[in-house]
Amino acid sequence: MLLRHTPAEIRERSALNINPAKTCQPIGAMYAGLGIKGCLPHSHGSQGCCAYHRSTLTRHYKEPVSAATSSFTEGASVFGGQANLLQAIENIFSVYEPEIITVHTTCLSETIGDDLNQIVDKAVKEGKVPAGKQVIFASTPSYVGSHVTGFSNMVKGMVKCLAVASGKKNGKVNIIPGWVEPADMEEIKRIAGMIGVSFTMFPDTSGVLNGPLTGEYHMFPDAGTPAEDIRAAGDAIGTLALGEWCSADAARTLDAQCKVPCRVLDLPIGLKATDRFIDALRTVAGTSVPDTVNFERGQLIDVISDYHQYFFGKKVALVGDPDQLIALTEFLLTLDMQPVHVVTGTPGKKFEARIRELCAGKGFDVNVRAAGDMFLLHQWIKNQPVDLIMGNTYCKYIARDEDIPYVRFGFPIMDRVGHQYFPVTGYKGGIRLMEKILGVLLDRADRDAPEEKFELVY
Amino acid sequence: MALKHKSIPDVATVKEELLKKYPTKVARKRAKQIVINDVKDGDVVPEVQANVRTTPGIITMRGCTYAGCKGVILGPTRDIVNITHGPIGCGFYSWLTRRNQTKAPLESSENFMPYAFSTDMQDEDIIFGGEKKLIAAIQEAYDTFHPKAIAIFATCPVGLIGDDIHAVARKMKEKLGINIFAFSCEGYKGVSQSAGHHIANNQIFTHVVGEDDTPRLGEYKINMLGEYNIGGDAFELERVLEKCGITLVSTFSGNSTYEHFATAHQADLNAVMCHRSINYVAEMMETKYGIPWIKVNFIGAESSAKSLRKIAQYFGDKKLIDRVEEVIAEEMPAVHAALEDVKPFTEGKTAMLFVGGSRAHHYQDLFTEMGMKTIAAGYEFAHRDDYEGRKVMPTIKVDADSRNIEEIEVTPDSTRFVPRKSDEDLKRLAEEGFTFKDYEGMMPQMESNTLVIDDLNQYEADKLIELLKPDVFCAGIKEKFSVQKMGVPMKQLHSYDYGGPYAGFRGAVNFYVEIKRLVTSKVWNDLKAPWEENPELSATYVWE
């Protein structure tokens, strides 16, 4: 057994996290920064943070992930990191020539109290930021929240540092997609395009972290949201923020800062959440939904009805990030599956409340935990077995030990390809999720069926 | 390949090109770290600046002290519960990502490697101190797992807020009656992972080595130091050593257990693979217990044979010397057969290696065996002695960053210090040309007019590839995909791209086959679409 020391007996722990279901803020900030065109994210801390974040993102995407670091030494940790960051800004613009740098903090620079606002201001005053280029920043202490919080904080940082209201509305809608894959950002843009909405999406990692192999390497691919578009987000007629945990803060900040009203929706994963997203899009655009969208929706419904018998009543264990899990839970309930164990590492009681609310009256009791870990999830599974596990790559240790079908979902996925290229959002994404779920469930049925019960057709 | 058919500039021009774009101060510093190799008589090579700070803003390949300590040295030991004391990230990122394989002999044997343990510090712990949480975490780990040892690793904020992790370790050791020890391996210490190796060496030597005097029996007892069992390398070495009749008391730290470390003082020889990461333990064991150390290299079939012979020569026993020759004779035919198969594809090709503190040197042997030339190489975190040889150690200036890393005082053990060799033996070995604690470094082995670059960064890597067009580039995961975007096959020498083993004889064969796969892969010829190759429409379409 891989996780041979995990007992079924659950002992409440107050101090020891075992097999985390989250990681730290800065990696989320780095990922968000990569969604701005011509951006080099910068980690204000010691070298290891940047190396770890780049490595993890690279393992997940199999793509180059460039980011710089302030390379703190003991001296910088004692005397403050201002000199390091000023030097870094100067070197980055000279050597790598990005359009924009997104600086995020780490537990180190937060603990010593470095003030990014002041340091960046000094860099500008000292002429270290070339004309027309930008340095924006966000505070992302690793000891608060999770990687999800870091993503949210950097998107908020984009709004705070860039968005300006000129006083004249530009007729566009802002879409903040949340922490989803490049393929999902592409899909969300496609859907908005189909509805006919004039929009700005930020951040946008499509084309950045799923680029082609051509024989030429460009540190800054021709993709991502241009900084001037984020500046103009202050002139939009409204903002659709997808995901309370990843996008709402930025949207509300934009409202306060530039009087751009917002609406916070769930991530458009599954039937209902996609319905609400499209309904919101057509309302803000004042258009009617085209038949092409109805056609895709109908296809999703068709697959649900074709394969309902294999979803019905199946118990599922889920682990991942709040926005994803809320939407996924709702979708599994749409399929008449039973998400009986739901764990996120990200703290926040409102997550537990939302999952309970979704599962209420569905005929099963849900175990839900925010600020939980994968050790707890495994123990829950030992006590109440499930038919399916959905979560990141680390779930494969549980899946193998307990011999349970498993679908990779979330971050990081380090051992399979697909999440970069194929969305799980929108109606088509819903079909892909069902394809994946059915694939593992029916493979299992084929593996386990006695010869006389082996089925040709499902 | 996209980059072929361009002229290759000379190395001086390349160096100039690499420095051209830098601000003056950066250029001045990098000029000392980018060296054109020039091997003179007596293996005298130019000085390379190494183990110095990376300039902020430069996209370095380096990691931190915590990574070197928890990730590299202690990571591969399966039966110690390793608790990261800090916010969640560090523990998460070092969770199973280094591919140290381990084989617990029984289903009931302890193996904590698939687990990540962290105190997951929150803001209140940063403000009010994290010692209380650490104590509670150790207690919870003990209550659930009852391990024989618990190790604690500090992350950046721990040192800053002043948590006394060593006092906590002492207190809990006394309370629980198991060995508990801590590492002050905050990420900001030193200039790279290297400081973490040193800190790990010190603490494992102080708290574990020599803790168990239960006799480890066997002939020709050695420790293998600096072998981390990436991709099963240690398994291959275990196989070869066993076949030779050599008893492996411990490996630091691939496929290791607490007991291996605790009894390591009973070995009669320390064989050092990765000099950079583990020479401290070798030195300390020699001083305290009288165990001599030699440098070995089991990367490359010829190097493996040479290292086995060196171990046999040390023991000086005809039985062992003969057995080693038999084993080499048994292993070599498969190696030669594989070489015959791959050489037509690899001969004359070029490689660049930028990795680690020993691999960029050791792996050159494998490329040489395949008839490939290393045209540029460098380490991420090595010191001058790893480049120029240990002979330069007296001339290395200790700067402020290195001074912060503790050097521990070691004296001979009053009862357990045993000289392993008599003066006569030592004299005989010296006459035979046998050298102890000798590492000649990477540069004497490389040809003159090749490039040696310390702490290579992203900008320089891109430039090097553009200018010198290697056939294979070796580094780590962060470098992998930008290199391949340029149409150059890239081999990861940290994770082995999830392949391996590459050590020993069977490992050498695996590596030859892998490099042949990389240089012959058809994908590199398919980068351009037909319409990109011939963009001009020169004829109308011909239907059948």
TrEMBL record, chain A:
The keyword ATP-binding applies. Its cofactor is [8Fe-7S] cluster. InterPro entries: ChlB/BchB/BchZ (IPR050152), Nase/OxRdtase_comp1 (IPR000510), Nase_comp1_CS (IPR000318), Nase_Mo-Fe_CF_bsu (IPR005976). Its EC number is 1.18.6.1. Residues 24-441 form the Nitrogenase/oxidoreductase component domain. Keywords: ATP-binding, Iron, Iron-sulfur, Metal-binding, Nitrogen fixation, Nucleotide-binding, Oxidoreductase. Binds 1 [8Fe-7S] cluster per heterodimer. It catalyses: N2 + 8 reduced [2Fe-2S]-[ferredoxin] + 16 ATP + 16 H2O = H2 + 8 oxidized [2Fe-2S]-[ferredoxin] + 2 NH4(+) + 16 ADP + 16 phosphate + 6 H(+). Tetramer of two alpha and two beta chains. Forms complex with the iron protein (nitrogenase component 2). PANTHER family: LIGHT-INDEPENDENT PROTOCHLOROPHYLLIDE REDUCTASE SUBUNIT B. This molybdenum-iron protein is part of the nitrogenase complex that catalyzes the key enzymatic reactions in nitrogen fixation. This is Nitrogenase molybdenum-iron protein beta chain. It comes from Nitratidesulfovibrio oxamicus. The lineage of its organism: Bacteria, Pseudomonadati, Thermodesulfobacteriota, Desulfovibrionia, Desulfovibrionales.
From TrEMBL, chain B:
Transmembrane segments: none annotated. The keyword Metal-binding applies. Gene3D superfamilies: Nitrogenase MoFe cofactor biosynthesis protein NifE, C-terminal, Nitrogenase molybdenum iron protein domain. Its cofactor is [7Fe-Mo-9S-C-homocitryl] cluster; [8Fe-7S] cluster. It is an enzyme of class 1 (oxidoreductase). GO terms for molecular function: nitrogenase activity. PROSITE patterns: NITROGENASE_1_1, NITROGENASE_1_2. Its EC number is 1.18.6.1. The keyword Protein biosynthesis does not apply. Residues 64-517 form the Nitrogenase/oxidoreductase component domain. Keywords: ATP-binding, Iron, Iron-sulfur, Metal-binding, Molybdenum, Nitrogen fixation, Nucleotide-binding, Oxidoreductase. This molybdenum-iron protein is part of the nitrogenase complex that catalyzes the key enzymatic reactions in nitrogen fixation. Belongs to the NifD/NifK/NifE/NifN family. Tetramer of two alpha and two beta chains. Forms complex with the iron protein (nitrogenase component 2). PANTHER family: NITROGENASE MOLYBDENUM-IRON PROTEIN ALPHA CHAIN (PTHR43457:SF1). This is Nitrogenase protein alpha chain. It comes from Nitratidesulfovibrio oxamicus.
